[in-house]
Amino acid sequence: MAVHVHGPGRITAAILGAPAAALVATLAICGALPFPGDAKLLAFTFAGLPAVALAPCAALLARSGTRAWIGVMSVFTAGAALLVVG
Amino acid sequence: MKLGPRSYAILWDAHAWAGAVASVLLFVVFFLGAFALFAEELSPWQERTFRAPIAADDAMALAVAQRLADAEAAERQGWFGISLPTDEEPWLRVWRPSGSSLAYSFVHPVSGERFDQRSDLGDFLNQMHFFGPLPHGQTIAGFASLVLVLLAVTGFLLQLGSVLRELIRFRPFAKQRRVFWSDAHKVVGVISLPFFLVFGLSGAVLGLEESLDPAVTAALFDGDAAAMAEVSEWPRLPEPSGVPAPAPDLRAAYESATARYPDAVHRWFFIANLGDENAIVDLPGEEPGKIAPFTNVRIDRRGEVIWTRDAGGGNLYAGPVAALYGLHFASWASLWGKAIWALLSLLGAFGILAGNLLWIERRRVKAPTRFDRFLARFTAGGCAGLAIAVAAIFAANQLLPSDMQGRVGAEKAAFLLAWAGGIAYAFAARDAAVAAKRLLLGAGYCVLAVPFLDAALTARVPFDPRTPWLFATEAGLAIFACLLLSSAAAIRRMGARRQKVSAPVTAA
Asked: Which of A44, A56, A57 sits opposite B216 (nearest CB)?
């Protein structure tokens, strides 16, 4: 198996940024769904929480630390904007 | 379908590092999960008074419960809980707030004799399963559960295209120990995958519910906490009115709950605002054999049913989550079903341990770093030390005098000190594997001695099938001791084999 060098950018994005960004984004998306509260909470529990758990993998799969952080910040900003507007 | 080499390498690293960092936490969760399943069944073991049969029928017990609630209502206002006798706990249990936690006492349903809780063995092991007694423990368990979801999904992705092969390939006699641990980790991982996903998700919901509640309420319910409580099927309680009033009629409440859910077992009364005009009684029930068995009837002080919850949940969210909790707590299961669940939990703990040992073995043949050496010792102390801690609390439960002041705290201290001692020993010992072997041996012999100790102290024959609750506990302890001693023997054999393999290399 080829050894992959991750670098501090991607690692910090995976540990610190990605779960928080995923949490904000999933809360925003579930909150904006045109469904009643029980369906929103169901979506958050069964899709949002796993997304938070797997978000670090997405950051690690980025081509560079910079791209990983850009992705994290984009998702976070979009999620936060949706929360404010929604 | 298979992952590309880059994705494989990245996900492999994510799986390995997340596993290594959270391994001991997850080991604790799974290892103690096996005990948590039997928290109620351990009652007659931990408290010898409960080995007698139930001395009164429900009508008598309800009359005693009413007297206790009336006396409590006259004395103070606030929260109060009481349970009717059960097979495992044939006295009435009384719950009272004590600081930030609850204090328990027990009342005989006929004589009215009363004593304060003397052992918390079963419930403490249940609480330690999610680090409840430790600061922020439940939140830590919630994050560990999210890591478990990550491990389960990345583990599955890494095995894409070879899941069937990994399920059946096990080479216990391979020359390299790495192969043994790799096979063990993969076989257990594939078998336990659905189990891990259920426990990871339900553990995350249970552990993080409190922390995430404000954000979820704000984002999904526009800050309406009452709406969130409705969907979660636990509507908010009314505030106390300030007008004193006698306790609610518990017999009438019991009859209403039984009429509403005739298949459910109702043994508990949780009264909010006792002594106030706005007192509310919650009667949680369980419908045996259902995956999601929990019901609830909420009754006000005048005896009106103001809210009910059906087994299986009453809305889109509550239904699936109730099923998830039912699977987590094995509340659908008989004693045999729980035993299988407990073995699966121990298998999960072994799978996590195998992953760590695979990491350590891979690094041992290269040049181990400081982290690898730390992980080896922390694994030995954290995991084998936990076995010593469990043995210590069972032994303390036998040996501490029943009239000792602070007995409950002493039992818990025995557990925590033994665990801390096990970890310290693993770091002080010359070799982590030898330390683990010795800790497991000590724990195994100690656990094995516990049934005989209990029999000697109560002048009875051990392993007597005519006393089913005791026999089941003794059989469970004996099986657990055998597992610990077999693990110690396996470590010794592997150590001997390693010496044989490395001896010619050293000589050369």
From this structure: A44
**Chain A residues touching residue B320 (CB < 8 angstroms):** 42, 45-46
Which of A23, A27, A41 comes nearest B231 by C-beta?
Answer: A41
Q: Which domain holds residue A73?
A: 21-85
Question: Is A12 part of a structural domain of the chain?
Answer: no
Residues written for chain A: 86
Residue in A closest to B212 by C-alpha: A23
Q: What single DSSP character describes residue B77?
A: -
| Distance, CA of B504 to CA of B508 (rounded, Å) | 6
DSSP state of B198: H
Contacts of B376 (CB under 8 A, 6+ apart): B360, B368, B432, B433
For residue A3, being part of any structural domain is answered with no
ipTM over 0.90: yes
Distance CA B182, CA B177 (A): 8
In this structure, is residue A74 part of a structural domain?
yes
Q: State the amino acid at position B74 in one-letter form.
A: A
Number of domains, chain A: 1
Alpha carbon B132 to its chain centroid, in Å, reads 10
Domain boundaries defined on chain B: 1-47+120-227+315-362, 54-118+234-312, 367-503
Residues B253-308 have pLDDT tens digits of 999 999 999 999 999 999 999 999 999 999 999 999 899 999 999 999 999 999 99
Kindly compute the dihedral angle of the four CA atoms of residues B50, B56, B58, B62, in this order, to the nearest 10 degrees.
Answer: -90
